[in-house]
Amino acid sequence: MKKFISVIIALLMLFALMAPAASAVTEERLPIVYIRGNGETIYGPDGKPVGARLEDMLGGEEEGIAGVDKDTIVEAAVNIILPLLTEGLIFDKWDTYGRAIYDEISPLFKNAALDSEGNSPEGVGVSQKRLEESEARSKADTKYYNLYDYEFCFDWRLSPYDHVDRLDEYIQNIKKATGKSQVCIYVRCFGGSLAMAYLEKYGSKKDVARVMFTDVLSNGTAVVSDAFSGKVEFEAAYVQRYLGQLEQCDALNVGQGFTLTGLANEIVFKTLDLFTKTGTADMLLDGVEGLYEKLYKSLLPALCFATGIATQVNYWTCVYEKDFDAALDVMFGSKEAQEAYPGVLRKIKEYREKVTSKLPELYKTFSEDYGIRIGVSAKYGYMNVPFIESVHDMTDSLVSVKDAAFGVTCADISTVLSDKDLAGVDEKYISADKKINTSTCLFPETTWVIKNAHHDCWELSDTIGLLFLRSKDMTVDSYAQYPAFMRFYEETRTFEPLTTENCEDYEWYSLAEEKPTTESILVSMMRWFKMIFELLTKLFKGELDLGSLLSM
């Protein structure tokens, strides 16, 4: 009898604990349209993947970059570097160097670039099988409505407005198949730009009940905006910090951002480490900065057009409004570029006019006029890539938290918020490390910020997103285990609420501030000479050729 009573009491206690959480939100299961970023593989006419993503171009793939074998890549690199050394640096002749870069690189990425009208070359695009599977899924009722049940497949290189009509048809199919009057939308990364274009054109139909924006670039990202507008900064200390970040990413096996691979990465890493600690990097970067300022308006567009990035309209959705005119001048300032890509320019300007120039008012229209409940999830704990002016921003390795979290007030990567930023603010909006203030963002009650999570780490974001999209009224106060600020542990893929006890930064955060010691310089020199000795040994033994540098 006592055992029976104990069971009853335990069940009552469990019910009592669950009741507040259950009553905190009102569940409403609706189909979820999942729109991811640039993860969709682009294939060429030969059926091989096209290295269209920025990380593919700079990091390469196992079979090479853009499906091109490594020997061809090495040959192109030599053809670029030799004129740089002989004609440029020695004789200061740069007139034809931009054209030389374009001529050597553009054949490697011919399928990645869009044509003059901003369309994909014939035979290039996402898998037809994937498109057909996505279309067929939209016409079926999955009943349970999980996060990935209805994944909209699209060519992320194109303008978001090239897809909005098909996305609307996709949603109408889902409504018809499920009998639901509305759907929810979950977007990641580049998917945010497509969601914004769709809602700008079709949001007034009120087919969408809730949207979860996760790590989106639709509010701009400095990696693209600074680069396109020529905002580059050369500081050796931040290279050193970035090297520490890359070491950690490599150890955790998460997306590294923009790096080389294999032995080439090791050579660059250890050489930069040595140069930074000995002060050589500062002298070299001073020279590079002077050279860049002299040449960026010719070399930068040549590189971006050669790789196809400048023509991929969706990258332009990441350019801040304040940088747009400067970016257009850098990339399309020449008459030749304007005449070569009239359709690309038209589509770039269309998105700017309809979306970029109207942020953040559009979000208020979606929320207040269209009745769409908006949730936001963003990450931080990583630095931006070095060599851009916004290197001080806190990011998830790709997009800064202030952009992804729709206008939070945040400190630079090495600092905390000032007393002025914290004065009079409810503690629930202040992160335990005093780096983030969400009270200033557009949707403070439905904005979750996750510390020490890479852009490619999706588990916690998906968990919060699914909870939000399945409820009518979930906020940062609804669940004790999911407050506004969370801490992610990438080693174990676990998480917990962010507190003063677990809010420490990654160790490499302090590398930019640390002054090299005699010991650290000696260690760096030993690592570098050891690497060179091993490299030379392999070369003499015939175990290494230039083409294999990218794969070892």
Task: Give a description of the structure.
The protein has helices spanning about 1-25, 55-60, 70-90, 95-105, 130-135, 165-180, 190-200, 220-230, 235-250, 260-280, 280-305, 315, 325-330, 335-340, 340-355, 360-370, 400-405, 420, 460-470, 520-540; strands spanning about 30-35, 150, 185-190, 210-215, 375-380, 380-385, 395, 410, 435, 445-450, 485-490, 495. It has 20 helices and twelve strands. With about 550 residues, the protein is α/β, with parallel strands linked by helices. Among the domains are: about 25-40 and about 125-220 and about 355-510, Rossmann fold (3-Layer(aba) Sandwich); about 515-550. An eight-stranded mixed sheet has the order 2-1-3-4-5-10-11-12, with helices on both faces. A two-stranded antiparallel ribbon has the order 6-7. It is globular, with a radius of gyration of 25 Å.
Write the layout of secondary structure elements.
Elements: H1 2-24, E1 32-35, H2 54-59, H3 70-90, H4 97-105, H5 128-137, E2 150-151, H6 164-178, E3 183-188, H7 191-202, E4 208-214, H8 222-228, H9 236-252, H10 262-278, H11 280-307, H12 313-316, H13 324-332, H14 335-340, H15 342-354, H16 361-369, E5 373-380, E6 382-383, E7 394-395, H17 401-404, E8 409-410, H18 419-422, E9 436-437, E10 447-451, H19 459-469, E11 485-489, E12 494-497, H20 518-540
Parallel strand pairs: 1-2, 1-3, 3-4, 4-5, 5-10, 10-11
Antiparallel strand pairs: 6-7, 8-9, 11-12
Helix pairs in contact: 3-4, 4-11, 6-7, 8-13, 9-10, 10-20
